Amino acid sequence: MLMYNDIVMFFTGILYARGEIMVRISVCVGSACHLLGAHGVLEAFNGLIDKYHVQAKVDMQGNFCQGRCTEGVVIRIDEEIITKVSKEKVHGIFVEKVLDKLSNA
Question: Which domains does the chain have, with CATH numbers?
């Protein structure tokens, strides 16, 4: 049985393959990550996406458990998992992992 997230990932995959989305960011919003500040991390990423006008090149998602509940707020950028993320670290991660990738595309 397909779940909503599977359907979203399928269509996002089509857009990604067509070059319409260059970077995929997923923030865990499961219980542990929620308590450790996932909402602030999600808002910080959304703010940077708007600030740098890369809405058409970044797919931003909130997903439930990424299986690393003891490692703080967990994010995935494309296939790379990054742990212990705080809203204070988001700008550096965004510049290094997202803007650099988009400028090299």
Answer: 4-103 (3.40.30.10)
